[in-house]
């Protein structure tokens, strides 16, 4: 650090131009900031060692130092590995995981060597390619990962076991292929679905990898695909293009190698970041210049720290000579960022593909399994145990019967002395006989049903966004039922809740309100000599020219047009229109707003700016800028106006402006405060606007103090703040501005409705705390009556103590002035680092789960994922994560369900998510309607599938009691197969795809219905075994009463029906019973339900005579030869298939009646409202709630009036002093 500072001093003394000095001061300030990082890292490591805590976060394998963005230790000036996490596995890429930390032959253990523009020299190090994959599988990993996922389902393991033992000769009572072939078909169908879904991911990755980059080859730039970019390549990136790799900036079209990048895709911040190349490389402005650049870069090893970088550029001759130049984060541009307001840049690729910091923050696409699947898996284990028990009982029965009646069974070949072997073989035989207690068709039925539910989501026109021509997309169908059980939503802010667009909407000037659009009922009128209501901007222009308030209005907009750090860009290709480069989106919106009122800022020079004031060009000398920071909450500019007067213009939070107002000559304070409160109720971002006239003598004295403070080497920023305080006093309040951080359509209503559904929403954003809180109020995440717990601690122990105190206060119910009914937790990234450590994480989680809303500010992508993983690991709730940028991918993949928004930040999140939607508001229907439907349908389908199989196959066990446990089946073999494949296959599909327990309108109107999914009302252990016991009960009635009815099967001609006629009667009674059960549980009948239920029964009656006629002739089955004449004419057959199902259904119908009439569930009431179209009288309650809402809002606004201002802290004055927009920019060629 000392060498770097010394070198900068030498350069400054040699190059004493104001432009160069501004550049060097900027770099020095940023370097000094970063130099504090090792001290913080050391302090934290000491704290960790003192507390005995591990350096890593549990099983995440992520060093805490990396998470905090620590700069790591210094390594001989060669660029140390910063927070390197060698355990962090990147996304799957051609089957290879993220490489270890040692890269490059000849590189030191703490750095890597990158030869600039020399592919041949870099080839020896075998650096990673620039291809990126977010897919779940590749050609090498598909088979093992797919088989692992499928055989984690116990049903598949069971059927594989059954299929294997069927291959043993003399064991299986059925064909050896009746299990293994259907299992192979099921796995093949599932594999086809998985491949089809993963192919979509591969296509999305391919599109991104084919994006065009310009690579320097020789002395000219050649277009290459992103995938072909290599480490060491010199790239040209143009305005509004995404960066293809992690780059070191060399030069740009802007003065002194500066450029602007938008990092909302990385950290969620809306303000632009300023980066700057080294002074030595900033003069390389053409390809020929770059071709003369000789040397290499020693950089840190690949790591996941977004905010740190250490390296050295070693020049080996050429125009720079032989030098070593220090590199820091000021020169680093990360993949995922977008170049803004800069025509072009030249940069060197240092990290590519999965070694980039963005991808190092990502995790491998996980295998996700739903809670319904897990519950089903567990119940299959119990069913398997019951099956084993039945098989053992049957085998014991066979042994007992054989030993007792051995003398009567001499005609059978029963080898002596093989009792144990026979017993084991009998167990296997009965396992095969009863194996369909667990339906083999269940898995494929679930997959098909889920696929169809996903198609319903894709085809829903209510979730189609016309403006972007984007429909909802279920990228995987495996998780549709999870959408109906979500308890926590983790959301990004920028681009997810907001549109990332700032617009100047309203202002208050001299106690009078002006707005861009005014509703008819709010138009301005004079009441008792005072203006009530709002004027529009057209009237505002007229008032400037003719009103007595003209001078005040003029001063207000003159301030907006001059008091800022915006840089204008003239776009010749667009009719000379002006595009404003603004590090702060708020400042950009204010300057654009002033331009709408004909105060057009159009030129910036190092010492002055020019504004077209209502058609007249005026030049203002910029004397000083007192910059914004989070402590000051304001910025001011000291200007010499065209008339020679000196004015100080100031804008900032109402709290800091009001306390600096003059005691006299401020008549508009109370009116302005009322207007601020009104703006805040509408969720607008507010700033107070004030000014002061300054005398020549006063300014001369103050400027000397300011110059001294700006050059001090001790506490420079504090000294500048102190000097600014001396002049920012006795202000005259002009008014206030109101900027809309435009929310996406329907966001407040969506969040409010989801909260009614019992869903807790956490916002995880990289944006500033004030901005995040302001948006929280705007989108109704935070209500006006909430008590906010704000955690901004700086050490491990302070964070722990803070959380313990707040948690203790809540438990005890007193102290802290907290409203225990409505709590909101606000925590910043630094405090969150500590809160996620092992000894604190449970405190943090307990406090956070007690709150109705949680906002985590200034968090990194990795922290987002760690928060989600913490809640996932420590609770049983279903989590959903939603975001739109690459910085949200880790969070999306960590949650049970990931939803990506196809927003302005690109498609990276949508590509990596399980579901993709165009707007946040579509989440409402996705969860409350499609989620609730999918959960209910799938639950009912699974329960019915088990029910129908248990009902049929338990009759096999009852039959074993009557055949001496011989292993004989009561049903013909192919009829058993067709039971699952044909005759009961359609009802589960009809229930799983088309049934609706409530329609979409009712589910949206009564979001409380969603809580049934969260509580697992429709599918749980109790429900599963309730259905299983019911199936046992039905099998008892059908088998034993059916046997009584058919005990004497002699007919009038003396013939008897025999075994197979008896089996057909029982089989038909079972089929009618399960189809009646399907009809009883169906809530909505469609044409497909009619085809599925009555149609299946008709199919059996048509199939039986045809099969009984054809099968014997083809010798495929002789059992049914001639039975038709013994069935259809027989009255006992019709008695059995009518009486037995009716007796079974009497209990079920009675249970349903009792439950609806005397044990009513909430959805039963809504079903009645839906059926009889009963009007809803809730609007009266809504009006009452709105009145209460208004009162609470005003109470809150007296404490805070919507202030929010987003801007980088420091360095802005140096940047604007370097610009002269009257000069022609270099083309770069």
Automatic annotation (TrEMBL):
What InterPro entries does this protein map onto? ATPase_P-typ_cyto_dom_N, ATPase_P-typ_P_site, ATPase_P-typ_TM_dom_sf, ATPase_P-typ_transduc_dom_A_sf, ATPase_P-type_domA, HAD-like_sf, HAD_sf, P-type_ATPase_IV
Q: Which reaction does it catalyse?
A: a 1,2-diacyl-sn-glycero-3-phosphoethanolamine(out) + ATP + H2O = a 1,2-diacyl-sn-glycero-3-phosphoethanolamine(in) + ADP + phosphate + H(+); a 1,2-diacyl-sn-glycero-3-phospho-L-serine(out) + ATP + H2O = a 1,2-diacyl-sn-glycero-3-phospho-L-serine(in) + ADP + phosphate + H(+); ATP + H2O + phospholipidSide 1 = ADP + phosphate + phospholipidSide 2
Stretches assigned to the P-type ATPase C-terminal domain: 910-1160
The entry's ATP-binding residues are 492-494, 587, 628, 651, 685, 765-767, 858, 864, 887-888
> Domain named P-type ATPase N-terminal: which ranges?
114-180
Q: Which domain of life is it from?
A: Eukaryota
The record's keywords, sorted A to Z, are: ATP-binding, Golgi apparatus, Magnesium, Membrane, Metal-binding, Nucleotide-binding, Phosphoprotein, Translocase, Transmembrane, Transmembrane helix
Bilayer disposition of the protein: Multi-pass membrane protein
- Start and end of every P-type ATPase A domain? 207-275
Q: Name one GO cellular component term.
A: trans-Golgi network
Q: Where is the composition biased (Low complexity)?
A: 77-88
- Entry cofactors: Mg(2+)
Which Enzyme Commission number(s) are on file for it?
Answer: 7.6.2.1
What Pfam families has UniProt attached to this entry? Cation_ATPase (PF13246), E1-E2_ATPase (PF00122), PhoLip_ATPase_C (PF16212), PhoLip_ATPase_N (PF16209)
In its UniProt record, which GO terms are filed under biological process?
A: endocytic recycling; phospholipid translocation; post-Golgi vesicle-mediated transport
User: Matching SUPFAM superfamilies, A to Z?
Assistant: Calcium ATPase, transduction domain A, Calcium ATPase, transmembrane domain M, HAD-like, Metal cation-transporting ATPase, ATP-binding domain N
Q: Where are the transmembrane segments?
A: 380-402, 422-444, 946-965, 977-998, 1019-1047, 1059-1076, 1088-1111, 1131-1150
Q: Which NCBIfam families match?
A: ATPase-Plipid, ATPase_P-type
| Protein name in UniProt | Phospholipid-transporting ATPase
